[in-house]
Amino acid sequence: MSRIKLFGLTMLSAAVLLVSCKGNKGNESSDNSDTLSYPYDTYDDITYGDPAPVIDTTAVAEPIMTEDQQGNLSPETTPVINDADVFYIIAGSFTVYSNAQNACNKLKAKGFNSEILIPFGQYNRVSVKSFKTREEAKAALASLKSKLDDPGLWILKR
């Protein structure tokens, strides 16, 4: 960079710093309070651009995940009703079995019939509760999320 450009940038940054310091002197309050005065109080009702869209998050359905024999998860696209299907609410997936045991023991201490599912692939899935129907699992999911204070719970169909 040439010396002239470097000198110009230095002078410009010094001018910006000087102007910003002078601009703050007028905002000092005489009562030494911790609140800052906002000079544009009368303009609070002005909105710029389009207002943010309101998104109804209650209508979004939680996907139910299915697992293949290798442990790969995929969202259930077309529900197939099978009497042998079991729906689990999953609290965690662990590659280390002892971590799955710790999570399972914590849930059992809270009074849940938690279990570690037979692993497909490398993941040991810890279920909070199992259900025979999809509707029962969906109905229980929201209450368990709030009861356990865990928004990461999800449903697995096997």
Short characterization:
With 158 residues, this protein is of the alpha+beta class. Helices cover 32% and strands 18% of the residues. The chain is elongated.
Note down, in words, how this protein is organized.
This protein has a domain at 60-157: 2-Layer Sandwich (Alpha-Beta Plaits). Strands 2-1-6-3-5-4 form a six-stranded mixed sheet. Helix content is 32%, strand content 18%. The protein is built from three helices and six strands; from the N terminus they run αβββαββαβ. It has helices spanning 3-25, 97-109, 134-148, and strands spanning 64-67, 73-75, 87-94, 115-116, 124-131, 154-157. It is α+β, with helices and mostly antiparallel strands. A hairpin with a 7-residue loop joins β4 and β5 (124-131).
N- to C-terminal distance: 65 Å
Percentage of residues assigned to helices? 25-40%
Which term fits the overall shape? Answer: elongated
Strand adjacency order, main sheet: 2-1-6-3-5-4
- Overall SS class: alpha+beta
Q: Descriptors for this entry?
A:
3 helices; six-stranded mixed β-sheet; 6 strands; Alpha-Beta Plaits; alpha+beta; 18% strand; 158 residues
SSE map:
Layout: H1 3-25, E1 64-67, E2 73-75, E3 87-94, H2 97-109, E4 115-116, E5 124-131, H3 134-148, E6 154-157
Parallel strand pairs: 1-6
Antiparallel strand pairs: 1-2, 3-5, 3-6, 4-5
